[in-house]
Amino acid sequence: MKFTLSWLKEHLDTDADIDAIAVALTRIGLEVEGIENPAEKLAGFKVAKILTAAPHPQADKLQVLTVDAGDGPLQVVCGAPNARAGLYGVFGIEGATVPANGMVLRKAAIRGVESNGMMCSTRELELGEDHDGIIELPEGAPVGTAFADYADLNDPVIDVAITPNRQDCMGVRGIARDLAAAGFGTLKPLALPQVNATFACPVEIRTDDQAGCPAFYGRVIKGVTNGTSPEWMQRRLKAVGQRPISALVDITNYVMLDHGRPSHAYDLAKLSGPVVARKAKAGETVTALNGKAYTLDETMTVIADANGAHDIAGIMGGEHSGCAETTTDVLLEVAYFDPDHIARTGQKLALASDARSRFERGVDPAFLDDATILLTGLIQSICGGEASEIVRAGQPPELGRTIQYDPQLSQRLGGVEVPDAQQRQILAALGFKIDAGWTVLVPSWRRDVDGAADLVEEVIRVIGLDNVPSTPLPRDEGVARPTATPMQMVERKARRAAAARGLQEAITWSFLPEAQAGAFGGGVWSLANPISEDLKVMRPSLLPGLLAAAQRNADRGAESIRLFEIGRRYLADGERLTLGVVLAGERNPRNWQSGKAQGFDAFDAKAEALALLAAAGAPVENLQVMGEAGDHYHPGQSATLRLGPKNVVASFGALHPLTAKAFDLDGPVVALEIYLDAIPAKKGKDGFARPAYTPPALQAVRRDFAFLMAADEPVDALLRAVRGADKANITVVRLFDLFTGQGVPEGQKSVAIEVTLQPIDKSYDEAALKAISDKVVAAANKAGATLRG
Amino acid sequence: MTGVVLSEIESLSQSLLPQVEAAASLEALDAVRVAALGKQGSVSALLKSLGGMSPDERQVMGPQINGLREAVTNAIAARKTALEAAALNARLAGERLDMTLPAPAQSGGSVHPVSQVMDELAEIFADLGFAVATGPEVEDDWHNFTALNIPESHPARAMHDTFYFPDEVDGKKMLLRTHTSPVQIRTMMNQQPPFRIIAPGRVYRSDSDATHTPMFHQIEGLVIDRGIHMGHLKWTLETFLKAFFERDDVVLRMRPSYFPFTEPSAEVDVGFTRDKSGRRVIGGSEGWMEVLGSGMVHPKVIEACGLDPNEWQGFAFGTGVDRLAMLKYGMDDLRAFFDGDLRWLRHYGFAALDVPTLSGGVGA
């Protein structure tokens, strides 16, 4: 919302300067977004008179002028065709900056003739488009006066952000009222013109849509001349960014900006029959003032006559019934439209307008008569004409809301003690009426105020939030207690562990292209209004986002890519916290010690999965390696890690070559996902003490075994069998060699393991070692492996 | 007899000790040792000759011969040590490597600034007694709007550019939460007051330009208790921002504003100064930037959650986590947060062990 200082002072009697007003506005909740004074651009431009004009000796199109800008005659070379002796115009002195092009005026010789300054055109001063000649001011304009002062342009424009609750401040008068309440002057009484209605309104006005348009006031003004609006009105409209159109249109715009009250002026000649507010018919179209056609539905309200709908009510007038230069008779529409209706219609049509933004926030329902009178007065004084009686169809809603207020609330809720009398004074200045028992009547223009908390806000925003004393929150005794949940701790530990293991944490979009979501299990949440097709489906996996990031990095020349992310997957049954890792490019770069670069393989993914699961607190020793990692993985080089047959806590492996190719990634790419929410919570513990433990005093013994087993059987089965062969003595079973080929029968593999035995009470003798070895071999046999001879 | 022996001792001593000294290798030294001290050795022969002497002669000659043996033994040992040391030195000289060669590369990982800042916030607010709460990102319009006093036609809904899903769930319109405020609602509905929570997380708005991304991070704070007022809100925000930026000159400016779910509402500007490069730095009050939205939770919101607004009241605030990160650590492009550019992550990311602590300062 923009307005000028002089405009504000139409309503506010104040001596405060612009800076003080700006500070006050922000302080009371009308945030100042900018202040601009057009006069600042016009420094050094003065009213001047051309004393003499003579042809330039060297150039046909130039003249040599003597110009008086208040400091005696100056010689100026000028190329404007209308420059002539006796002309009053605008002169830029030496040192002034031309607004249109930033050029600083200097004394210079033009074709050999000295020139001191410049006579200016409208366009050069950014006051209009005219560049056919220099500005011509009326005869006798005060020579030497700053042009900005002469043209009344020394009027700062203030731009304030109006929050959606403050419809009343979408007009200059509302802002003036707020400033007056804050102690910045006095609100001037509303000056209503005297309007004589000389005839009955010749047009029938009705509202057939009481819900959408509870009230429709109208009046005809006959015999108007719709020329341009007066200079002062144009200046103000232009200053706040409104293009002057014609007197009648400008007047409705001016009253809207002045009082937050939209209205509409119809050319009566273009209407026929009764003018009615009614529901639109489904499919009915209206061509609005912006030239676009809108197709309406039956929830929307229109203003129509016998020929059909003209107006999208409360949002935008129609192209065919507005006022033009030829208009002589006007029908004025001052209506009250239901805010919810307007908001819904505006949202459906995606049509924004100054009228909509005011009606949907709720205009003052008690201001219809006054607005009609203000508009009529302006029309008659500018365009002439005779006014009819006002027709009042329907009735605006009565607000008349009262709130029982306890002035103690300013302390209890607002945190600041304000004397009762001062609270009374603040509320009264804002238009509230308070009786002795603190029953507060809310003014009709404050639709937003409907509870005691709102009144506290009114009081403390005028008092100033900087006057609310900072008050420490009550604090529990002692050191702050831990607040993180077990899940939050899992997440934190997994994140720090991943970073410690050399992975870079990325954050990628929660939404994916549909095809990517489909390739990674399929997304169930697909946006109705995505910002683009690439950001459409909520991810079922963290991997596509990481792979896309890997692809971008690879495109930038990254050689080794190790990315992880902790975030949610969005599934049908909820959002699952997940850790995803992608490893692509080189595991080790080529180097002087080991030569060629090495790529990642599926066991790198497995190692990360196990390490991160351990860091996250999963019982990794109980994990089972199973299949079904998903189609995006290499079918023979991927697996799931499970705790029990159904609880998948991670999947990992080499990516399917086609998946990698879809992301333009060369070479092996490996990945894993850990389903953090599938990790069972640690059982509640009694205190921090660990189970009792003394390191064994006796030396552990290692024994090696080599077995033959079927080549396609998993080694893990053998290792588990051996580990379980003698749980009391066997502490570690480790695979140290795996071999197929010469010396190993076809279809079999040689598996060499190292078994660590830990004696407990006494050292092993030969017999004891033999007994354990026999158990190991027997267990291996049971698992389908035979001791290699 | 004695004379002969004495001269032989003398002569052996004269010849053996230089031989030991002259031995150029361990093999040569061993040959000398065998020739002198071996079973057939010259010194051994002398020792044997003691057996044929009278006791008086033995009394005299014994120490002499043993002295010789000891001198030779010691000389051999000394020579051996010297030869071994020389051999080791020679070997080590051959093992010399170029110690300027690079060591095997280690890939250093990092924590994303958003995660780091969330950890920092959790740490600060834990000290003030706030727990961390979470809620769904795929939310229904009741929790995201209606319960927060934003009815369907409310202009504030237009302020949020909301992503919607086409299908309703249990008769509710589903959307991506536009703010973390629905976590307030869920907390108030599912737990018993008093509450002190922060709720960080992803939020979504259909907006994309130089300073907006369709996904970003917010953090919400909520305190509901008896007797909580605007002064507590002010203190909490001051205390939090001073702790977060680790500066005592953080200045707040509260401006009355409007959010449907708070009353009174305030926007909070934080003062900044410019550093030598012209970059804005939090602290001081050369200028102001809007950092937080806040207010006293609207009685209608408290009521919608099934609590009595006459008994329970409190405040809520919200701010952008990405923005806090940018203000503290000096990034200037929000879009880079979500690109996963390894170069950016290495530069702006945090070491695994930069865990925020109150004793060490939350910043890193």
3D architecture notes:
The complex is a heterodimer of chains A (789) and B (364). Chain A is an alpha+beta fold and 789 residues long. Helix content of chain A is 25%, strand content 27%. In chain A, the strands form eleven sheets. In chain A, strands 28, 31, 32, 33, 34, 35, 36 and 37 form an eight-stranded mixed beta sheet that branches. In chain A, strands 13, 15, 16, 22, 23 and 24 form a six-stranded mixed beta sheet that branches. In chain A, strands 6-5-4-7-10 form a five-stranded antiparallel beta sheet. The model of chain A has no long low-confidence stretch (mean pLDDT 93). Chain B has 364 residues and is α+β, with helices and mostly antiparallel strands. Helix content of chain B is 42%, strand content 22%. In chain B, strand 8 (262-274) and strand 9 form a beta hairpin. The radius of gyration of chain B is 43 Å and the shape is rod-shaped. The mean pLDDT of chain B is 90. At the A-B interface, helix 8, helix 13, helix 14, strand 28 and helix 16 of A face helix 5, strand 1, helix 7, strand 3 and strand 6 of B.
What brief labels describe this structure?
heterodimer, A: alpha+beta, 20 helices, elongated, B: 364 residues, alpha+beta, eight-stranded mixed beta sheet, 12 helices, 11 strands, 42% helix
